[in-house]
What does this fold into?
Amino acid sequence: MITYRFYKSGDEKQIVSLWNKSLRKDPIHPIRFRNLVLLDANFDPKGLRIAVDEDKLVGCVYAVRRKLPMFGTDIEPENGWIPFFFIDPGYRNQGIGSRLMKEAIKFLKDQGRIHIFFSSYAPNYLLPGMDEETYPEAYEFLKNEGFEKLYSPVAMDRNLVGYEAPADVHDLKNKRRLEGYTFSTCEDKDLYEVIQFANEVFNPDWGRAIREGILQGLPIDRILVAREEGKLVGFCMYGGYEGIPERFGPFGVNPNQQGKGLGKILLHECLTKMRSEGLHGAWFLWTGEKSSAGYLYQKTGFEITRKFHVMKKTL
It folds into this structure.
Protein backbone atom coordinates (compact mmCIF):
# COMPACT_ATOMS: atom_id res chain seq x y z
CA MET A 1 0.00 0.00 0.00
CA ILE A 2 1.33 3.41 -1.03
CA THR A 3 1.42 6.06 1.71
CA TYR A 4 2.19 9.76 1.28
CA ARG A 5 4.01 12.12 3.60
CA PHE A 6 6.64 14.84 3.67
CA TYR A 7 10.38 14.50 4.26
CA LYS A 8 11.72 13.35 7.59
CA SER A 9 15.30 12.95 8.72
CA GLY A 10 16.89 9.87 7.20
CA ASP A 11 14.95 9.97 3.92
CA GLU A 12 17.77 11.65 2.04
CA LYS A 13 19.67 8.42 1.30
CA GLN A 14 16.65 6.83 -0.37
CA ILE A 15 15.81 10.10 -2.16
CA VAL A 16 19.29 10.27 -3.69
CA SER A 17 19.20 6.58 -4.57
CA LEU A 18 15.83 6.87 -6.29
CA TRP A 19 16.90 10.08 -8.03
CA ASN A 20 19.87 8.26 -9.56
CA LYS A 21 17.70 5.30 -10.53
CA SER A 22 15.06 7.51 -12.15
CA LEU A 23 17.07 10.37 -13.67
CA ARG A 24 20.01 8.40 -15.01
CA LYS A 25 21.26 11.18 -17.29
CA ASP A 26 21.32 13.68 -14.41
CA PRO A 27 22.63 11.78 -11.37
CA ILE A 28 23.28 13.62 -8.13
CA HIS A 29 25.91 13.11 -5.45
CA PRO A 30 24.70 13.02 -1.82
CA ILE A 31 26.86 16.04 -0.94
CA ARG A 32 25.42 18.04 -3.82
CA PHE A 33 21.87 17.11 -2.76
CA ARG A 34 22.67 18.16 0.78
CA ASN A 35 24.13 21.50 -0.32
CA LEU A 36 21.45 22.43 -2.86
CA VAL A 37 18.38 21.13 -1.04
CA LEU A 38 18.80 20.42 2.66
CA LEU A 39 21.07 23.42 3.31
CA ASP A 40 19.05 25.82 1.19
CA ALA A 41 17.81 28.65 3.41
CA ASN A 42 14.37 28.25 1.82
CA PHE A 43 14.12 24.50 2.43
CA ASP A 44 10.92 23.39 4.18
CA PRO A 45 10.49 19.65 4.86
CA LYS A 46 6.74 19.98 4.23
CA GLY A 47 7.46 20.90 0.63
CA LEU A 48 9.46 17.74 -0.06
CA ARG A 49 6.64 15.26 -0.69
CA ILE A 50 7.35 11.55 -0.93
CA ALA A 51 5.49 8.32 -1.65
CA VAL A 52 6.42 5.15 0.23
CA ASP A 53 5.52 1.50 -0.40
CA GLU A 54 5.99 0.06 3.10
CA ASP A 55 9.61 1.11 3.78
CA LYS A 56 10.55 1.71 0.14
CA LEU A 57 10.57 5.24 -1.24
CA VAL A 58 8.97 5.19 -4.70
CA GLY A 59 8.30 8.82 -5.60
CA CYS A 60 9.28 12.39 -4.79
CA VAL A 61 8.13 15.91 -5.73
CA TYR A 62 9.87 18.96 -4.27
CA ALA A 63 8.15 22.33 -3.80
CA VAL A 64 9.89 25.44 -2.46
CA ARG A 65 9.04 29.08 -1.85
CA ARG A 66 11.13 31.96 -0.63
CA LYS A 67 11.45 32.47 3.10
CA LEU A 68 14.44 34.75 2.63
CA PRO A 69 14.70 37.32 -0.18
CA MET A 70 17.23 36.92 -2.96
CA PHE A 71 17.83 40.67 -2.97
CA GLY A 72 16.44 43.54 -0.92
CA THR A 73 13.17 42.58 0.76
CA ASP A 74 11.44 40.80 -2.13
CA ILE A 75 10.38 37.26 -1.20
CA GLU A 76 8.28 36.98 -4.39
CA PRO A 77 5.13 36.25 -2.35
CA GLU A 78 3.10 35.03 -5.33
CA ASN A 79 5.73 32.64 -6.70
CA GLY A 80 6.61 29.03 -5.93
CA TRP A 81 8.79 26.44 -7.66
CA ILE A 82 8.96 22.73 -8.38
CA PRO A 83 12.72 22.17 -8.88
CA PHE A 84 12.52 18.39 -9.40
CA PHE A 85 10.32 15.30 -9.29
CA PHE A 86 10.74 11.60 -10.08
CA ILE A 87 8.91 8.29 -9.72
CA ASP A 88 10.42 4.81 -9.49
CA PRO A 89 10.22 3.32 -13.04
CA GLY A 90 8.38 0.29 -11.66
CA TYR A 91 5.67 2.45 -10.08
CA ARG A 92 4.83 4.82 -12.93
CA ASN A 93 1.38 5.29 -14.49
CA GLN A 94 -0.36 4.51 -11.19
CA GLY A 95 -1.28 8.06 -10.24
CA ILE A 96 1.54 8.43 -7.73
CA GLY A 97 3.11 11.39 -9.52
CA SER A 98 -0.22 13.20 -9.81
CA ARG A 99 -0.95 12.69 -6.12
CA LEU A 100 2.47 13.98 -5.11
CA MET A 101 2.24 16.95 -7.45
CA LYS A 102 -1.17 17.91 -6.05
CA GLU A 103 0.23 17.73 -2.51
CA ALA A 104 3.26 19.83 -3.49
CA ILE A 105 1.11 22.45 -5.17
CA LYS A 106 -1.28 22.52 -2.19
CA PHE A 107 1.72 23.23 0.03
CA LEU A 108 2.55 26.23 -2.16
CA LYS A 109 -1.06 27.35 -2.39
CA ASP A 110 -1.39 27.26 1.39
CA GLN A 111 1.58 29.64 1.49
CA GLY A 112 -0.31 32.06 -0.75
CA ARG A 113 1.51 31.17 -3.95
CA ILE A 114 -0.29 31.70 -7.26
CA HIS A 115 2.38 31.19 -9.93
CA ILE A 116 4.18 27.83 -9.87
CA PHE A 117 7.29 27.40 -12.02
CA PHE A 118 9.22 24.38 -13.20
CA SER A 119 12.02 24.74 -12.53
CA SER A 120 13.68 28.14 -12.72
CA TYR A 121 14.30 28.37 -8.98
CA ALA A 122 17.33 30.38 -7.92
CA PRO A 123 19.75 30.13 -6.30
CA ASN A 124 19.81 26.33 -6.27
CA TYR A 125 18.30 25.20 -9.52
CA LEU A 126 19.62 21.89 -10.74
CA LEU A 127 18.40 22.29 -14.32
CA PRO A 128 16.85 25.40 -15.91
CA GLY A 129 13.67 23.55 -16.91
CA MET A 130 12.31 20.37 -18.45
CA ASP A 131 14.51 18.64 -21.02
CA GLU A 132 11.81 17.33 -23.34
CA GLU A 133 14.21 15.28 -25.45
CA THR A 134 15.71 13.46 -22.45
CA TYR A 135 12.50 13.10 -20.42
CA PRO A 136 9.54 13.12 -22.84
CA GLU A 137 7.21 11.35 -20.40
CA ALA A 138 7.96 13.88 -17.67
CA TYR A 139 7.29 16.72 -20.09
CA GLU A 140 3.89 15.27 -20.98
CA PHE A 141 3.20 14.75 -17.27
CA LEU A 142 3.77 18.44 -16.55
CA LYS A 143 1.49 19.45 -19.40
CA ASN A 144 -1.20 17.11 -18.09
CA GLU A 145 -0.81 18.71 -14.65
CA GLY A 146 -1.58 22.14 -16.11
CA PHE A 147 1.92 23.50 -16.71
CA GLU A 148 2.48 25.54 -19.87
CA LYS A 149 5.75 26.27 -21.63
CA LEU A 150 7.00 29.84 -21.12
CA TYR A 151 10.35 29.87 -22.94
CA SER A 152 13.17 27.49 -23.80
CA PRO A 153 16.72 28.31 -22.67
CA VAL A 154 19.65 26.28 -23.95
CA ALA A 155 22.84 24.91 -22.43
CA MET A 156 26.09 25.28 -24.37
CA ASP A 157 29.58 23.81 -24.28
CA ARG A 158 32.89 24.70 -25.92
CA ASN A 159 36.00 22.55 -26.20
CA LEU A 160 39.04 24.63 -25.22
CA VAL A 161 41.69 22.24 -26.49
CA GLY A 162 43.69 24.22 -29.01
CA TYR A 163 41.71 27.39 -28.27
CA GLU A 164 43.31 30.69 -29.29
CA ALA A 165 41.73 34.12 -29.22
CA PRO A 166 41.30 35.47 -32.80
CA ALA A 167 43.54 38.29 -33.96
CA ASP A 168 40.57 40.59 -34.52
CA VAL A 169 39.75 40.37 -30.80
CA HIS A 170 43.21 41.70 -29.91
CA ASP A 171 42.76 44.52 -32.45
CA LEU A 172 39.32 45.35 -31.06
CA LYS A 173 40.65 45.37 -27.50
CA ASN A 174 43.44 47.81 -28.44
CA LYS A 175 40.92 50.04 -30.20
CA ARG A 176 38.64 50.19 -27.16
CA ARG A 177 41.62 50.91 -24.90
CA LEU A 178 42.41 53.97 -26.97
CA GLU A 179 38.81 55.08 -26.40
CA GLY A 180 39.17 54.91 -22.61
CA TYR A 181 38.12 51.34 -21.84
CA THR A 182 40.08 49.06 -19.51
CA PHE A 183 39.94 45.29 -19.05
CA SER A 184 41.36 43.70 -15.92
CA THR A 185 41.02 40.94 -13.35
CA CYS A 186 38.89 41.76 -10.34
CA GLU A 187 40.41 43.04 -7.09
CA ASP A 188 38.92 43.62 -3.65
CA LYS A 189 38.26 47.26 -4.53
CA ASP A 190 35.98 46.14 -7.39
CA LEU A 191 33.80 43.68 -5.47
CA TYR A 192 31.06 45.91 -4.11
CA GLU A 193 30.57 47.61 -7.46
CA VAL A 194 30.58 44.34 -9.42
CA ILE A 195 28.03 42.72 -7.10
CA GLN A 196 25.72 45.76 -7.21
CA PHE A 197 26.07 45.94 -10.99
CA ALA A 198 25.14 42.25 -11.30
CA ASN A 199 22.18 42.63 -8.94
CA GLU A 200 20.71 45.80 -10.42
CA VAL A 201 21.48 45.55 -14.13
CA PHE A 202 20.94 41.81 -14.49
CA ASN A 203 19.81 39.30 -11.86
CA PRO A 204 20.21 39.09 -8.07
CA ASP A 205 21.30 35.47 -8.51
CA TRP A 206 24.36 36.76 -10.33
CA GLY A 207 25.38 38.99 -7.44
CA ARG A 208 24.81 36.08 -5.07
CA ALA A 209 26.99 33.82 -7.24
CA ILE A 210 29.87 36.30 -7.01
CA ARG A 211 29.54 36.85 -3.25
CA GLU A 212 29.07 33.21 -2.28
CA GLY A 213 31.64 32.00 -4.78
CA ILE A 214 34.36 34.12 -3.21
CA LEU A 215 33.30 33.15 0.31
CA GLN A 216 33.62 29.50 -0.75
CA GLY A 217 37.09 29.96 -2.17
CA LEU A 218 36.60 31.24 -5.73
CA PRO A 219 39.89 32.91 -6.78
CA ILE A 220 39.04 36.56 -7.30
CA ASP A 221 41.07 36.69 -10.51
CA ARG A 222 38.50 34.40 -12.15
CA ILE A 223 36.33 37.51 -12.38
CA LEU A 224 37.13 39.94 -15.20
CA VAL A 225 35.83 43.51 -15.33
CA ALA A 226 35.49 46.13 -18.06
CA ARG A 227 35.36 49.85 -17.34
CA GLU A 228 34.86 53.00 -19.37
CA GLU A 229 36.71 55.97 -17.88
CA GLY A 230 36.63 54.15 -14.56
CA LYS A 231 32.92 53.27 -14.63
CA LEU A 232 32.06 49.56 -14.54
CA VAL A 233 30.32 48.52 -17.75
CA GLY A 234 30.69 44.72 -17.80
CA PHE A 235 32.02 41.61 -16.11
CA CYS A 236 32.67 37.98 -16.89
CA MET A 237 33.59 35.05 -14.65
CA TYR A 238 33.96 31.31 -14.32
CA GLY A 239 34.00 28.83 -11.45
CA GLY A 240 31.35 30.73 -9.51
CA TYR A 241 28.69 28.03 -9.34
CA GLU A 242 29.36 25.11 -6.98
CA GLY A 243 33.11 25.63 -7.36
CA ILE A 244 33.20 24.00 -10.80
CA PRO A 245 36.05 25.73 -12.73
CA GLU A 246 34.73 24.79 -16.19
CA ARG A 247 31.31 26.28 -15.49
CA PHE A 248 31.28 29.64 -17.25
CA GLY A 249 29.29 32.66 -16.12
CA PRO A 250 27.59 34.77 -15.14
CA PHE A 251 28.56 37.28 -17.81
CA GLY A 252 27.03 40.62 -18.76
CA VAL A 253 27.66 43.99 -20.38
CA ASN A 254 25.55 47.05 -19.65
CA PRO A 255 22.83 47.20 -22.35
CA ASN A 256 23.72 50.82 -23.15
CA GLN A 257 27.23 49.65 -24.10
CA GLN A 258 26.18 46.97 -26.54
CA GLY A 259 27.41 47.13 -30.11
CA LYS A 260 31.00 47.93 -29.13
CA GLY A 261 32.23 44.36 -28.88
CA LEU A 262 32.89 44.56 -25.13
CA GLY A 263 31.17 41.24 -24.55
CA LYS A 264 33.26 39.64 -27.27
CA ILE A 265 36.45 40.95 -25.65
CA LEU A 266 35.47 39.81 -22.16
CA LEU A 267 34.37 36.39 -23.39
CA HIS A 268 37.64 35.70 -25.17
CA GLU A 269 39.67 37.11 -22.28
CA CYS A 270 37.83 34.71 -20.00
CA LEU A 271 38.30 31.69 -22.29
CA THR A 272 42.00 32.51 -22.62
CA LYS A 273 42.33 32.61 -18.86
CA MET A 274 40.44 29.33 -18.48
CA ARG A 275 42.78 27.70 -20.98
CA SER A 276 45.81 29.12 -19.16
CA GLU A 277 44.67 27.17 -16.08
CA GLY A 278 44.67 23.98 -18.15
CA LEU A 279 40.90 23.69 -18.40
CA HIS A 280 39.70 21.60 -21.34
CA GLY A 281 36.22 23.01 -21.69
CA ALA A 282 33.74 25.73 -20.83
CA TRP A 283 30.01 25.22 -20.33
CA PHE A 284 26.90 26.83 -18.91
CA LEU A 285 23.27 25.84 -18.46
CA TRP A 286 21.20 28.83 -19.44
CA THR A 287 20.97 31.38 -22.24
CA GLY A 288 18.46 32.38 -24.88
CA GLU A 289 19.26 30.64 -28.15
CA LYS A 290 18.15 33.67 -30.19
CA SER A 291 19.41 36.32 -27.76
CA SER A 292 22.41 38.56 -28.47
CA ALA A 293 24.39 36.51 -25.93
CA GLY A 294 23.30 33.28 -27.61
CA TYR A 295 24.52 34.50 -30.99
CA LEU A 296 27.82 35.65 -29.46
CA TYR A 297 28.41 32.28 -27.85
CA GLN A 298 27.74 30.42 -31.08
CA LYS A 299 30.06 32.71 -33.04
CA THR A 300 32.72 31.97 -30.43
CA GLY A 301 32.47 28.22 -30.98
CA PHE A 302 29.98 27.19 -28.30
CA GLU A 303 27.55 24.47 -29.34
CA ILE A 304 24.07 23.82 -27.99
CA THR A 305 24.14 20.64 -25.92
CA ARG A 306 20.69 20.67 -24.27
CA LYS A 307 17.41 22.52 -24.51
CA PHE A 308 15.02 23.11 -21.62
CA HIS A 309 11.49 24.41 -21.17
CA VAL A 310 10.71 26.72 -18.28
CA MET A 311 7.07 25.91 -17.47
CA LYS A 312 4.39 27.64 -15.40
CA LYS A 313 1.10 26.76 -13.77
CA THR A 314 -1.18 29.50 -12.50
CA LEU A 315 -3.51 28.55 -9.63
Q: What stands out?
A: The domain at 2-126 is CATH 3.40.630.30 (Aminopeptidase). The mean pLDDT is 96. The two ends are 30 Å apart (CA to CA).
